[in-house]
Design brief:
mainly alpha, 2 domains, two-stranded antiparallel sheet, 3 helices, elongated, transmembrane, DUF2905, transmembrane helix, membrane, DUF2905 domain-containing protein
Length: 107
């Protein structure tokens, strides 16, 4: 009988409580929203990264002819059964050049 005499505020409070039980927790809802928004961005980034890797692989023989990959500061360790190669100075030079290009294009 007590339920018949409830006020409108009590009814709204009860409805919100029921909806809250049915809804996902807030942190999960936020995670799903971010996932939906970020999946297109992540896909675009991965495709771009793949294209850049493909271009670097295709252009590597031509870039090595002009000296990239054999600069002073590139680390090469040769052993009997393996060779470790880390083009540190080449990476720094390419980073500086690409930063300059992006700076000029965005100006």
């Amino acid at each position: 009988m007590a339920k018949a005499y409830r006020t409108q505020a009590d009814v709204l409070k009860a409805k919100r409580k029921q909806e809250k039980k049915r809804r996902r927790p807030r942190h999960l809802k936020l995670a799903f929203d971010l996932q939906a928004a970020g999946s297109a961005t992540m896909a675009r980034f991965l495709i771009t990264l793949g294209i850049v890797s493909l271009m670097a692989g295709l252009l590597w023989p031509y870039l090595s002819r002009i000296g990239l990959g054999r600069l002073p500061g590139d680390v090469v360790i040769e052993r009997e059964s393996m060779t470790f190669y880390f083009p540190l100075m080449t990476c720094l030079l390419l980073s500086a050049v690409l930063s300059l290009v992006y700076w000029v294009l965005n100006r």
